[in-house]
Design a protein that fits this description.
Low-confidence stretches: none
Helix content: 40-55%
Number of helices: 11
Strand content: 15-25%
Distance between the termini: 33 Å
Strand order of the largest sheet: 4-3-2-1-5-6-7
Structural class: alpha/beta
Number of strands: 7
CATH class: Alpha Beta
Order of helices and strands: EHHHHHHHEHEEHEHEHE
Length: 229
């Protein structure tokens, strides 16, 4: 099957999923727990909904529009600037301890490629994480799900295509077209069956701490399985 998106002899592309791949844990889930601990949301309701949406994600059945209405509501209730001011604390207390021990080494080993984090999680949460990886080991870009922001206010809606399942390919193709670069072969790493379209597209796919369904796919397709923990 012809899957390549790039051109022969051009810059190679390394695509890294974020949650449960470069991180040991899920940044989106951790952010929601952080908001609970900061007293910014109703604990009982928010914790229950957070768990349910995460279970839907693990099954590959997440309604992204519904999830973003839920996860962006605190930005509406408290304002974008107030929650953005909490991101450094979130990074120090929740995200930095979640960085997989082998993540920096993996990024360093592919320094000859254009290195991109591609994640379903909101850019509001993942931009500072991508910046941290850029400082830690080098990173060229972040592709994420973009929240709609109008006149400095979060609306609760997604801007454009959700960077989820097959939507990751759409976001990737758009990013490649806008980059002004020519890309060659593609490497991709992910933990989740939700990223099967992305891994299937790649010339070199690697299952990283895979869930059970992705592990089974990796065995059938002969993809390597690695552990960065």
């Amino acid at each position: 099957m012809t899957r390549k998106l790039g051109q022969s002899g051009a810059q190679d592309l390394a695509l890294f999923d974020l949650d449960n791949t470069l991180l040991i844990g899920d940044s989106d889930y951790a952010w929601n727990v952080f908001l609970i601990d900061e007293g910014l949301v109703d604990e009982a309701r928010y914790r229950s909904q957070n768990k349910q949406f995460y279970a839907d994600y693990e099954r590959g059945e997440l309604d992204m529009e519904a999830y973003f209405r839920f996860s962006l509501q605190p930005f509406i209730d408290h304002g974008l600037s107030k929650l953005q001011a909490l991101l450094p604390k979130f990074m120090d207390t929740r995200i930095k301890p979640m960085v997989a021990p082998g993540a920096a080494g993996l990024l360093h080993r592919h320094a000859d490629k254009t290195r991109v984090i591609i994640t379903a999680t909101s850019r509001l949460i993942t931009q500072p994480i991508a910046d941290h990886f850029a400082d830690l080991a080098g990173l060229d870009a972040l592709i994420a799900t973009d929240p709609e922001i109008i006149d400095g206010a979060v609306t609760g809606r997604i801007a454009g295509t959700p960077c989820y399942q097959a939507g990751k390919l759409d976001k990737l193709k758009q990013w490649m077209a806008n980059s002004g670069q020519a890309f060659g072969e593609t490497w991709a790493w992910s933990d989740s069956i939700n990223d099967l379209p992305l891994l299937d597209m790649a010339d070199h796919a690697t299952a990283t701490h895979p869930d059970d369904r992705l592990r089974a796919e990796a065995e059938v397709r002969g993809w390597p399985v690695i552990n960065l923990r």
